[in-house]
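Note to self: keep these together.
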Amino acid sequence: MPPKRKNEEVEDTQEHDSKRLHTEEESSTKLTDRLAKLKELKRRRATEVEQGNRRDRNLEFQRSKENPRLEARDARKKAEALKLLEKQEAEDKGEDYERKQFWKYSAESTALWEEKMAKKAQRANHGFTDHTQAAHKKYERLMSDFKPDMSSYQEKRLQTIERAIRNGEDPSDIVATANSLDYADIDDKPSKEAIERLALETKKQIEQRETRSRERKQPTDDISWINEKNRVFNQKIARFYDKYTKEIRDNLERGTAL
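Structure:
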C-alpha cells in the first residue's frame, strides 16, 4: 500500500475519533444542563410548596383568633353609636332626626315599604292556626305574588263571548261558575310559559321547605364512624378535644405534619 494512502486512512481515523469525542462531550454537556435544570425546578417547587403551606398556616392562625360573633357585635355597636351621634347632632342643630332620616328615601320607596309592612301585618299570626288556616294563608301569599296573563284572559273572554253568540246565549253572562267545565276543554292547554312558571314555583317551595326544616341533617362528609353508636361517641370526643387537635389534623391534611 502506498504511504500516501496510509496517511489518508490515519487522518480519516483521527478525524472520526475527534468527531466522536466532540459528540460525546456535547451529549454529556446537554445531560449536565438538563440535570441542573431539573434540580432547579425541584428546588423552586419545594420553595413554592413551603411558601404556600406557610401562608395557609398563617391564614388559619388568623382565622382561629377571629370570632364572627364578636365582629358582628362590634359592627352592631358601631352602627348604634353612629346612630346616636347623628341623633345628638340633629338635636343640637334643632332638626327633626326622624324626618331627616326620611330624606334618604324617595316617596315611591317609602310607599312601597309601608305597603309591604301593611301586608305583613295582615298576614301576621295572632293566635292558634290550624292546617286549613295555614293553607289559606299560604294561598293568599302565593296569589299576592302571582301575576296573571291579562292578554290571554282577554283573548279567551272574547272567544267565550263569540261562542255564546253562536249558541244564542246572553253574551253578558260569561262569568265562570263553580260548575263550569270550560277550563277542562281538550283544546284548552296551558302555555309553555305557564308550565315553566309552575315548575319554578314548585322548585322554589321545595328549596324553602328544605332550608327551613328543623330536622338535624347528618353530615355526609368526613365520615369517621362505623355505626350509630360509634358516631355518637366520636361526636362526644370531638366536642371536648377538637379544639386541641385542630392544628395537628390540619397539618395532616396539608401533609406538613412533623
